[in-house]
Amino acid sequence: MKKVLLLLFWAFQSWAQNPQAPRLIVRGDDMGYSHSGNLALMQSSLQGIQSSIEVIVPSPWFPEAVQMLQVHPSIDVGIHLAITSEWDKVKWRPLTEAKSLRDPDGYFFPMVYANKDYPGLAIIENKFTLADIEAEFRAQIELAIKKIPRISHISSHMGCSRINEEVIEMTKKLAKEYHLIYDNTTYPFERATYAGPSQTSAQKIASFIQMLRKLQAGKTYCFVDHPGLDDAELKAVSHIGYEGVAADRQGVTDVFTSQQVKAAIRELGIQVIAYRDLGPKP
């Protein structure tokens, strides 16, 4: 808690000294997909620069995520709407009947868009219905708000809320109904990405700092990545085409907790903010 408040103090000090300082949301995605992910996401908020956490409501470790976030009420939380279950060895299912969103085994399809390694197992390759997506999104929003009432915003896992214009408009409608910020639509911002190689922890840290130096005064940015731990659990998590999950996501945790990164943020006067700081709820 003390470290979260210190991060917020840095942000306020930066803004007070320079109201035109770049503003940066540091977002950690996928809380709930694994115990290791949950631990890393909390570490990245409590000991690092991460300013918002996205929770996957139908995921297997969602109950633990709820407990962790209840203990730390200062952490900004968003609903990471999900209608896919991409990992080969761990799966989750819809909260609703959602027949058009289920694979032959009853799980979510692994992919949103066509993927040669998972032929026929993408949402858009199947006859999904807008009604099923809306019902599932609504169920996830309501359960999240029930368990974590301070939810400030919604985003989407693997871009699932942007499949087509109908889904985008439906998601905007739900965001307005539940008084939630809808990622990059309610209050637009620019995406920030690594500005160089990002395979190893050292490369990620250097590329992240390089990205920080390119942020422009007066603009708001959002950087998104997926903290994790390089442990036995995450070594067992993968899908075809993304096998080095544990090492890759440990690298993200290393970036978000890096003393070099923190020093660069202070040096550059960057204001680290959360979604809830973007403006009043819709």
Automatic annotation (TrEMBL):
Superkingdom of source: Bacteria
Signal sequence interval, chain numbering: 1-16
Pfam families attached to this UniProt entry: YdjC
SUPFAM superfamilies documented for this protein: Glycoside hydrolase/deacetylase
EC number: 3.5.1.105
Cofactor entry: Mg(2+)
Methyltransferase in keyword set: no
Enzyme class, broadest EC rank: hydrolase
InterPro entries per the UniProt record, alphabetical: Glyco_hydro/deAcase_b/a-brl, YdjC-like
Alphabetized GO MF terms: chitin disaccharide deacetylase activity; deacetylase activity; metal ion binding
Keywords in alphabetical order: Carbohydrate metabolism, Hydrolase, Magnesium, Metal-binding, Signal
UniProt GO BP: carbohydrate metabolic process
Keyword Cytoplasm: no
Protein name: Chitin disaccharide deacetylase
Organism: Aquirufa nivalisilvae
